[in-house]
Amino acid sequence: MSDFDFTALHSALEEISHQGRSALLPALHAAQEIYGYLPQAVAAEIGRILDVPLADIYGVIDFYSMFYRDAVGKTVIQVCGDPACGLAGSDVLLESVCRHLGIAPNEISADGRYTVERAPCLGLCEHAPAVLVGNRAVGSARPDDVDGWLAGNGDIPHGLVYGSQRRLTVNCGKQRQTSLKEYLAGGGYSALKKALQLPAEAVIAEVKASGLVGRGGAAFPTGLKWEGASNAVGQPKYIVCNADESEPGTFKDRVLMEEDPQRIIEGLVIGGYAIGAHQGYIFVRGEYPAAYRGFEQALEEARQGGYIGSDILGSGYAFEVELRRGAGAYICGEETALFEAIEGKRGFPRVKPPFPTTHGLFGKPTVINNVETLCNVPYVILNGAAEYRLLGTAKSPGTKLFCVSGDVARPGVYEVPFGVTLRHLLEEQAGGVPDGYALQTVLFGGAAGAFATPAQLDVRMTFEDLRLAGLPLGSGVVMVFDERRDLRDVLRRLARFFAHESCGKCYPCQLGTQRQLEILERVSHGETLADDVERLTDVGWTMSDASLCGLGQTAASAVLSAMQLWPALFEPIKENY
Ligand SMILES: Cc1cc2nc3c(=O)[nH]c(=O)nc-3n(C[C@H](O)[C@H](O)[C@H](O)COP(=O)(O)O)c2cc1C
Ligand code: SF4
Ligand code: FES
């Protein structure tokens, strides 16, 4: 007989257990909230209820970094160690928290209250250095005030939102969630009303005509994706909102979610109607507790208002939305890995084809769209494709959100029309590099992006111009480094991120990300070996060419770009250098 009292677990699982294995991540979250971690007896009980073998449950627990098989402190403190926070002193911060609590990373404090971990990017880069204290985010955390911010003082990292022509972020910047009432007052849900009076094909035609392409990184035309799922044979169909934003340097979706969730829900319901789905999912990364709570409230409001449910606005159209929470795995942002996570499995990407439009969630036709993509949809439907195209260029219509962080006067989310230059964004909008230092470089697109030099500042930011300049737009990251920064350290942090986040399904990435990290650790410590450059190049191209999914295919992108731009960085550093 087990020592554990399962009463609370049984009542937490009562409403979800009929979903079977698909309820596994929610069940593990619920259990961890009750017991603090996931001991064997609890895992076995969940397995019994959901009919999942214990070995599979362990596989899932071990895959996600926010699930714990062994006891941890009551509150887990996650200190970001990725580049934007690294610039802002996150190593000193981590050291000082550990010293303050008298523990090493991953240990439990003597009073059992805390465990400290170094975390990958927390999506709070504009508030670096960033920390998550349990479910509470802290920005600009000071190493000399650990007690203060542990006690709840300190900068609450709300969105910092700027931009001259704001369509997607009109309701953002208030530093709080926009209520349904406020959203309606600004014309919210008029697009859904309009869409429900149109044939589904007309909705898809409008989105196609708008030229909207996905903002999640792959830049796939949204209307085409919707058409594919609409034409696909098979029922039911699903639409999924990818809110797993985890690419280092990216925080735009967090701001949209925290401040204007109704816009995302409206885009999702319109998409569902267009493709003939009656069930949607929103998958929010585990490290965004505020966004998750905000969605819970927003979905309830939308349900009460009749914008989701069994007969939306009296149209006869039925659509439900289920909110899911990730558990700490960057790879779950990859669309097929995200489906696996919703299905209660480890987030291993699937081999494509077949593509999600025909074989997606639960093997059924599925559309998956990024948060920012969905936020464009109400505007397109309400105002029409022609008006949508008034901003941006013919090949890159509309506006784009950029995540500006690092050595810049005003970090934040910037909404600008496609076609403005990087110089305009950095110097005129974001106030340039502060304190009189010169710009060294910009990490553009994300951890999987490339470095832009000061000579490239006049590049127009459109898909077509950036492609020519060799700069991937990625998730809209613009991370700025001034002349003082040691890029070897930045590269080491990026390599550490990929080595940590590789799911291990395919060898080129599983081994390549580890080798890349080892070499870049040597490089950053001034211990570069004679053939390290050759090895790094070889590992980089092998990963790019032979990896199964986008993570491995781009894990060397920034490193290869740095090697081309600054070969001297990779030369062995002499002792008296
Ligand atoms: C490793 C990896 C991580 C990804 N992370 C995200 C993410 O956090 N959010 C996102 O929207 N797309 C992410 N993507 C892209 C998705 O696979 C997918 O293309 C996207 O959700 C489609 O939506 P869109 O067409 O609206 O861009 C990621 C892709 C890869 C390979
Ligand atoms: S490329 Fe990396 S992340 Fe993608 S499947 Fe292979 S090991 Fe996993
Ligand atoms: S929150 Fe630290 S790099 Fe993004």
Q: How do the helices and strands line up, and which of them pair or pack?
A:
Blueprint: H1 7-13, H2 24-35, H3 40-50, H4 54-63, E1 75-80, H5 83-87, H6 90-101, E2 114-119, E3 131-133, E4 136-138, H7 146-150, E5 161-162, H8 180-185, H9 190-196, H10 200-210, H11 222-231, E6 238-243, H12 252-259, H13 261-275, E7 279-284, H14 289-304, E8 320-325, H15 335-342, E9 366-370, H16 371-383, H17 385-388, E10 399-406, E11 412-417, H18 422-429, E12 439-444, E13 450-452, H19 463-469, E14 477-482, H20 487-501, H21 507-524, H22 532-546, H23 550-554, H24 557-565
Question: In words, what does this structure look like?
Answer:
The protein has a six-stranded mixed beta sheet, sandwiched between helices. The chain has a four-stranded mixed beta sheet with strand order 2-1-3-4, with helices on one face. The chain has a four-stranded parallel beta sheet with strand order 8-7-6-9, with helices on both faces. The protein is globular. It is α/β, with parallel strands linked by helices. Strand 3 (131-133) and strand 4 form a beta hairpin. Helices cover 41% and strands 12% of the residues. The protein binds flavin mononucleotide, iron/sulfur cluster and FE2/S2 (inorganic) cluster (FES). Iron/sulfur cluster is lined by residues 331, 349, 502-506, 509-510, 547-549, 551-552. FE2/S2 (inorganic) cluster binds at residues 80, 82-85, 121-125, 128, 130, 248.
